[in-house]
Specification:
The complex is a heterodimer of chains A (543) and B (296). Chain A has a domain of 251 residues. In chain A, helix 2 packs antiparallel against helix 6, helix 8 packs antiparallel against helix 9 and helix 19 crosses helix 20. Chain A is globular, with a radius of gyration of 25 Å. With 543 residues, chain A is mainly alpha-helical. With 296 residues, chain B is of the alpha/beta class. Chain B has 2 domains: 212 residues, Rossmann fold (3-Layer(aba) Sandwich); 59 residues, 2-Layer Sandwich (Alpha-Beta Plaits). Helices cover 32% and strands 30% of the residues of chain B. Chain B contains 10 helices and 14 strands. Chain B has a 6-stranded mixed β-sheet with strand order 6-7-8-3-9-10, sandwiched between helices. In chain B, helix 3 runs parallel beside helix 5 and helix 4 packs antiparallel against helix 5. The longest helix of chain B has 16 residues. The chains are: A mainly alpha (543), B alpha/beta (296). Chains A and B meet through helix 13 and helix 18 of A and helix 2, strand 6 and helix 3 of B. Chain A: Keywords: Membrane, Transmembrane, Transmembrane helix.
């Protein structure tokens, strides 16, 4: 009986396995696709603009005119302080720098909150932390991989610019600034994810930091007396490095220090309960039963909070656009020879307030459609997480439920356009280059067919490829914009340009609207949307 | 003959080459409590998703009170549903979710809803994000039981409830039956199914393995009989349905029996039986027998 009497040997914990490596692999899988897309886009765009510089700026006179255009406070507000525009590198930084740093920063913060708070909210993080991985360890790996992704984008841009024949030190400073901006916003996203217990709140507040950083940079660049403000924001600091010009490293050091501070704060804030945060929701409250009475009301209720965030951002941007309108227009009036050049550099018809507004309203299609796309992405997230199931068990077809969501998103898009119109009107009126309210509304509504294409494509994706809603929605709107910019840069044949919806909208309020094009685009959007809803009704709910 | 609450005809769902559900024929009568059993992955949730029109059948059909399950606008007026994994909007409080479901659902008895909230001891002031699994389930259960829908489809509704709340749940099921509501209960809690269900179906690997009243199911299965006797040892090997005869001591036998006990009793008559214990199998044992067959 000795075998029975002997106590079983205690189970020794296995020391094999490599939790760190497993977490690294997981994190890489979570971010690799987006990181690759952002990196390729950033490097490709930089190389393309640098390579086509000689065509855009053919003579020293043109370079000089462009430089004087770029030093106008209004243009400075939008594109930052120009470097040496005669240099292909300096020109590329001026044309693409802000756009790429916003793109990379936004991706970094979205990815950061997704893989941290998003995973935690869904309960998957607990599964990981029940193993050998500690929260601190997990955060360190996530932070490292996001930082490497941002740095890789910066490096890819440096390499692309060097390969395109620009000066190496400039390419290095620009790439470093871009990469650090990415790391800064990844850290911001990680910090927000520690503070807020809900992913939406974390993403929202980190996005607000990005928007505020951009605004501060615009004020610092636009108002000479407030130039010091640029030392406070990553977008300002990257401008202050003046790539291909003086190549200053001090602003980069400041940016690196700021980034390190945010990273340290994120690591310090990581001392908390899993699923908890530093701003916990209240334990209980009285019910607020408005907008719960029907499916459309509930769709509206879910939309109101994100809509007000997007509206605030769009209002601030278009108010600024309005405020700088007078300065822009009087500058161009004093320098008529610049009007032609401005057209070649991609800013046509900026001579009158109507043309100026029309040109800048075209950009509105992107946030307006982006908002609609996020609504359908959120709708699919509700479906995928099972929240929609209870509503689907009610006596209502799924096609109707999705249709209500699409219609609500369309209404939200309309509201955003009206907000942009009002803000532009207010700004131009204050600045003394009055644009009538009807003209502003007409200009803003004029781009809605493009936003409708984005919404239609998103609705189609909801039916046929719901995990790709973001890509479908971006294809006509962001893809179309990039296509136009690139096609203009490389002087592509007309039919290539014609693929972009932006090529078909009239410059309202400078011109009268192109009703045929608007009707065609809206019809295509409606067909795509109807096909998507029909497919949605037929497919299985994805849980 | 009244219209069945649920009827499926050759209901089949295929995912690629895998048959999640293979030609299911089922009929659930009005006002019965119907248990739906099966190991994980047997196709229970798939069946429920097809009944609700949340997924499309590959072939075959399902009807809710004669209405095709695919006509959700009509079919869903007649049913309420509690999913296996209840997900709620984290920012809405329990009260707000009940309000939403009541006003978008097939009609709710508010008085009974308040009573259920009290019975299930649910704190409605909290945002759903702070609810535990059991509390989320309670919200969905209260919403479903408070409807006057003639059919309640409950997918593992008590997996997160404590024993006290499970009793509240059983009471609510029985009250629903008294009101004439049909309850379709998919569950792993076999004691619960045994306590509340009139009939059960056992699903195995996408196919219907058994469908019967709980009492009949027992009869179909092996009964364990222990006999003590003083007379000559009975000759039982030739008796039909008898298996596993085992001597557990002098004058003691244990055997298992499938089918009616009359032949065994006749064979035992000469043995001067002193004690006789008949133990019917629990639903759990019946169920485990199916599990066993599935895994072997």
């Amino acid at each position: 009986m000795t075998a029975l009497d002997a106590a079983p040997a205690p189970v020794a914990p296995s020391t094999a396995g490599a939790p760190g490596r497993a977490v690294t692999r997981l994190t890489v899988r979570q971010v690799r696709r987006g990181a690759l897309a952002v990196g390729v886009l950033a490097a490709g765009m930089s190389a393309l603009v640098a390579a086509t510089h000689a065509e855009v700026v053919a003579s020293p006179e043109q370079a000089a005119s462009l430089a004087s255009l770029a030093t106008n406070p209004a243009i400075r507000t939008l594109f930052g302080e120009p470097g040496d525009l005669g240099d292909p590198g300096g020109f590329t930084v001026w044309r693409t720098g802000i756009f790429l740093s916003v793109l990379l920063g936004a991706w970094c913060l979205l990815a950061a909150t997704r893989i941290t708070r998003g995973e935690e909210e869904s309960g998957r993080t607990e599964l990981l932390l029940a193993g050998l991985v500690t929260p601190r360890h997990l955060l360190a790996r996530q932070l490292t991989i996001l930082s490497l992704a941002a740095a890789a984008t910066g490096a890819a841009v440096s390499v692309a610019l060097s390969a395109a024949g620009t000066d190496r030190p400039g390419a290095l400073v620009h790439g470093a600034g871009l990469g650090l901006t990415g790391v800064f916003f990844a850290a911001t996203g990680l910090l927000a994810a520690q503070i807020f217990p809900a992913r939406s709140a974390a993403t929202g507040s980190a996005t607000a930091v990005l928007a505020a950083g951009l605004m501060v940079r615009m004020i610092g660049d636009g108002v000479a007396a407030l130039g010091w403000l640029r030392w406070l924001t990553p977008f300002g600091l990257t401008g202050l490095t003046r790539p291909y010009d003086t190549n200053r490293w001090l602003p980069l050091m400041v940016l690196a220090a700021m980034t390190a501070a945010v990273l340290a704060a994120a690591v310090a804030a990581n001392r908390r309960d899993v699923r908890g945060g530093w701003l916990a929701p209240r334990a209980g409250r009285a019910p607020r039963t408005t907008l719960l009475g029907s499916a459309p009301a509930f769709a509206l209720r879910r939309m109101l909070r994100p809509l007000s965030g997007w509206a605030a951002g769009i209002a601030a941007y278009y108010l600024l656009i309005g405020l700088i309108a007078a300065s822009m227009i009087s500058f161009l009036a004093d320098n008529p020879e610049l009007a032609d050049l401005a057209g070649q550099a991609g800013f046509g018809s900026l001579g009158a307030v109507e043309g100026y507004a029309a040109t800048l309203f075209a950009l509105l299609a992107m946030p307006a459609s982006g908002f609609a796309t996020t609504r359908l992405t959120a709708f699919f997230a509700d479906e995928n997480s099972g929240r929609l199931t209870l509503l689907c068990a009610a006596p209502r077809t799924r096609q109707k439920l999705a249709g209500i969501e699409v219609a609500t998103a369309a209404a939200g898009t309309l509201v955003l356009a009206l907000v942009a119109a009002l803000a532009t009107w207010a700004g131009t009126t204050i600045s003394g280059a009055p644009l009538s309210l009807t003209a502003a509304v007409a200009g803003a509504l004029n781009v809605l067919p493009i936003a409708a294409l984005g919404l239609g494509a998103s609705a189609l994706a909801l039916g046929v490829a719901p995990r790709a809603i973001g890509w479908f929605g971006a294809l006509p709107v962001v893809g179309g914009f990039l296509l136009l910019v690139i096609a203009d840069s490389v002087r592509a044949p007309v039919w290539v340009t014609g693929l972009s919806p932006y090529a078909h909208i009239a410059l309202v309020p400078l011109e009268s609207p192109d009703w045929v094009a608007a009707a065609v685009m809206t019809s295509i959007a409606a067909c795509a949307g109807a096909a998507g809803l029909a497919a949605y009704a037929r497919r299985d709910l994805r849980l | 003959m009244s219209m069945p609450a649920i009827r499926t005809d050759h209901l089949t769902k295929r995912y690629g080459r895998l048959y999640a559900l293979d030609s299911l024929d089922l009929s659930v009568e009005p006002a019965e409590v119907f248990g739906f059993l099966g190991p994980n992955g047997a196709g229970k949730s798939t069946t429920i998703r097809l009944l609700l029109g949340l997924a499309q059948a590959t072939s075959g059909s399902a009807h809710i009170f004669g209405v095709p399950a695919t006509d959700v606008r009509s079919a869903h007026r007649r049913l309420a549903y509690v999913p296996a994994d209840v997900a709620l909007w984290p920012h809405l409080t329990g009260a707000e979710i009940l309000e939403l479901l009541a006003r978008t659902g097939p009609g709710t008895d508010r008085g009974y809803q308040d009573e259920l909230v009290a019975r299930f001891d649910l704190d409605l002031r909290k945002p759903a994000g702070t609810y535990s699994t059991g509390n989320r389930q309670k919200v969905a259960l209260v919403a479903a039981f408070a409807t006057r829908a003639p059919l309640l489809i409950l997918d593992e509704p008590t997996s997160g409830l404590d024993p006290l709340m499970e009793r509240v749940f059983r009471t609510a099921v029985l009250e629903a039956r008294e009101r004439g509501q049909t309850v379709f209960l998919s569950s792993h809690q076999l004691a619960e199914v045994e306590a509340v269900c009139d009939r059960v179906a056992i699903l195995r690997a996408g196919r219907l393995a058994e469908i019967a009243a709980v009492a009949d199911l027992r009869r179909l299965h092996r009964t364990e009989i222990e006999v003590g006797f003083t007379g000559p040892a009975p000759e039982l090997h030739a008796v039909g349905g008898v298996e596993d005869i085992e001597s557990t001591g002098p004058g003691r036998l244990r055997l298992s029996l499938t089918g009616p006990p009359a032949p065994v009793l006749r064979a035992l008559a000469a043995a001067e039986v002193t004690t006789l214990a008949v133990r019917e199998p629990s639903l759990e044992e019946i169920f485990l027998a199916y599990y066993g067959q599935a895994s072997r």
